[in-house]
Amino acid sequence: MAAAGLLFSSRAYTQQSLNEGSGFGTYYYDVEQIETCGTSFSAQNQGGVMCSHITSLPLTKINSNYVVAMNNTLLRGNMAKYCGKKVVVSVSGVASGLQLFIGDGCERCGTGSSTSDTWEAAGAPGLDFSYSVLNELSGSACADGHIDITWDIVDETLYNFDTDGSGTAQGPASGSSGSGSSSSAAAKVATTADTSTSISAIQESTSATQESTSTSQQSASGAKTSASSASQATNSPANVAHADVPTTMITAEGASTTSYTPTTSSSLEVLAISTTPCETGVWQCSGNNLVQCLD
Q1: Are residues 74 and 148 in the same domain?
Q2: How far apart are alpha carbons 68 and 85 in whole angstroms?
Q3: Are 26 and 130 contained in the same domain?
């Protein structure tokens, strides 16, 4: 285990230290890897955190694997001091850059001697993390179960908690990336929105093209209809000059003595009919009448 007397003066950060120590790191939840290492974190994820004990705030709603549980006795004694504060965790003297913050209480961490360097599941100093974070710190969280760590809780707020039920808005502090997986989810939502906007723009463009095509087709159809109407109007009976068609039938005797001389008002040129008898059944013009030779 890392020496309890590790010199914290070598830290690269400059925020005021609120609490520091050495002990053991363990895990108790995970909002991303719910089923892992032979364990289901479903029930643990539904539990409300100590830093919002009046207004219930479950881990699933915080939606971050960066929540850290500390000594519950210390936390309960002054939640306004510790809740939401940044935690710098070091393994083998190397500080992690993870944006970890205090949000919950750990019973094991508050039981037994705060200076003990012996692991005891019933009580040993340290911090409790998400499985994903402990695995990132050690690389073998599932196999080890716990690792040696040192920590420093500094006076920098990464997450706002309603510690006294006054109605304080809860969520990541302004300008903080302490929401962990929530930031990733927000990025995915933004990407989806951009994609949806692009698809919508394409659909609108396609719709406009279809409307334009439809308008062109309607215009062409209208032109064809106009041309057809004009053609019909030109060839209608009212506009075609024609000769009156005689319909009166006369007898064969009348036909043998009838002659016809075309008039200047007739639209058709007609030859004079001979006054000689015609063949039976033949049609001939007589004045304004069409006659048929009969027996």
Answers
A1: yes
A2: 10
A3: yes
